[in-house]
Amino acid sequence: MPAHLPTATDLARAVQSGDTTPQTLLEEARARIEAARDLNAVVSLNVGADETAAQVAGRVAAGETLPLAGVPLVLKDNLNARGTPTTCGSRILANYVSPYDATVVERLTAAGAVIVGKANMDEFAMGSSTETSACGPTLNPWDRSRVPGGSSGGSAAAVAAGLVPVSLGSDTGGSVRQPAALTGVYGLKPTYGRVSRYGLVAYASSLDQIGPFARSAADLALVMNVIAGHDPRDATSLDAPPAFRTGTPDELRGLRVGVIRESLEGNTAGVEAALDGMLAALRGAGAEVREVSLPHLRHAIATYYLIAMPEASSNLARYDGMVYGERVPAGDVTGSMTATRERGFGDEVKRRILIGTYALSSGYYDAYYSRAMRVRRLIADDFARAFGDFDLLVSPTSPFPAFRLGEKTQDSLSMYAADVDTVAVNLAGLPALSVPAGFETVDGVRLPVGVQFIAPALADERLTALAGALEAMGAVRVEVAPGYAD
Ligand code: GLN
Questions:
Q1: pTM for the full predicted model
Q2: Is there an atom of ligand 1 within 6 Å of 121 CB?
Q3: Which segments of the chain have a pLDDT < 70?
Q4: Which domain of life, per UniProt (predicted)?
């Protein structure tokens, strides 16, 4: 029997009704994290968690109703939470401790959540496998010889292995959705501007969004209702109050779902089967499912990397050992900055800073960055056109299930190609959800497969409504990875 651990919704209710306490939930979460140390999903524990748990208990006892009362969760290690190390998986920030809370952390804490610790990630969120972390790779709980995806692989593995019911990651080109797919959980990337980026360490600012991982549609809606909404401290924050809920199967009748034709090539048999199964379930519930072409998507990977790398090269200029993190002294200021960056950054981060700087440099700007910005517009226009005819679009989240540790580390281009189904969504600023859609058996091991649904800008709520409907129909069934269920 597949195991079902309690969801965040269950836990908050149990705390609220006095059946358990935030302190007990915190202890249990720590014990599960300890027992699953082999996964390397959680890289540091929050020393302030006991105090927060006690405060939440006091607030509940005083009669407050808190949507996330006592719910333990982990944050990707690029989210600032006061008093926690925020390393971004990098040596250069190894000794950095956050002096403040990100807006999402403030909101989670106000809602009664308890941050247990920080989750592993690719260095500065650059990667699709969590293998570029200075803390070492995170393992996939379904098969520990495989990657959990990335860059938010620690946050995904923590939810997939039942260490916590929900977690947060960040998604610049797929870093929430792809690891969600590869570990068999939900992962939502909201509309750009829907969730404040204040306190998220920037990778590529025009693409970054924070998003949740969860094992139920209700939990996704619960967390989004807490973290979304306008924030004056993020200049790109939108004023769109969250109204997330789960839907029912009858809402699928007449829903127009467009299957992205460009995503149908190059998938494994298991990914094809999972997508077909999902489309059959939608048709069975009365949805109108048809193919639609978005011709500029074939340029999405090149466009994404020509925008993400220049933005990263600018954002990462601040890590020179003068203000943040570790400083390597070496004679004069320039020597010290050079030595700090040489020692502090890993190879993939250096590669991206070099390519990004080159693409922005005088004489190349028009050929690369500026042209990429124009293609970005064409991609956004393709989506806008498709949403004239469809309520939602669908594609695989990843063309293949979890790959082996080390399989793509020597070949950057094959690692970049893992993002083929996800990056266009960030370029267009749209919301998208990866849902667990089945399994593909590879070498005798069941590996999760995800399907991605994309909604028009600001229609994020459609995605949790859809997830609720799919769960009610049995078209989505989330399982905890075997061996981690009890
Ligand atoms: N894999 C993509 C990259 O390396 C996406 C990463 C992300 O979304 N943070 O840029």
A1: 0.97
A2: no
A3: 1-4, 486
A4: Bacteria
pLDDT digits (tens, 9 = 90+) for 377-396: 999 999 999 999 999 999 99
Q: List b or e across 449-464, with b for residues whose CB sees 16 or more CB atoms inside 10 angstroms.
A: bbbbbbbbbbbbbbbb
Please check whether residue 392 is in contact with residue 455, taking contact to mean a CB–CB distance below 8 angstroms: yes
Residue 209 β-bridge partners: 171
Backbone angles phi, psi at 154, to 5 degrees: -65, -45
CATH number, domain with residue 356? 3.90.1300.10
Give the contacts of 317 (CB within 8 A, at least 6 positions apart).
none
| Gap from CA of 203 to ligand 1 centroid (Å) | 9
Q: Best substitution site from 133, 175, 408, 411 to test ligand 1's pocket, by max atoms within 8 Å of Cβ?
A: 175
DSSP 241-274: --------GGGGTT-EEEEEGGGSSS--HHHHHH
With a 6 A CB cut-off, is 171 part of the ligand 1 pocket? yes
Digit-coded pLDDT (tens) for 106-165: 999 999 999 999 999 999 999 999 999 999 999 999 999 999 999 999 999 999 999 999
User: Phi and psi (nearest 5°) for 139?
Assistant: -95, 150
User: Looking at residue 324, what is its pLDDT?
Assistant: 82
2, two tokens: 């597949």
Domain span including residue 103: 1-486
Domains identified in the chain, total number: 1
Give CA–CA dist 339/336, Å, rounded.
Answer: 5
Distance 173 CA to ligand 1 centre (A): 5
Residue 175 annotated as catalytic: yes
Contact 234, 456 (CB under 8 A): no
Cα separation of 89 and 76, whole Å?
A: 10
- What percentage of the chain has pLDDT greater than the value 70? 99
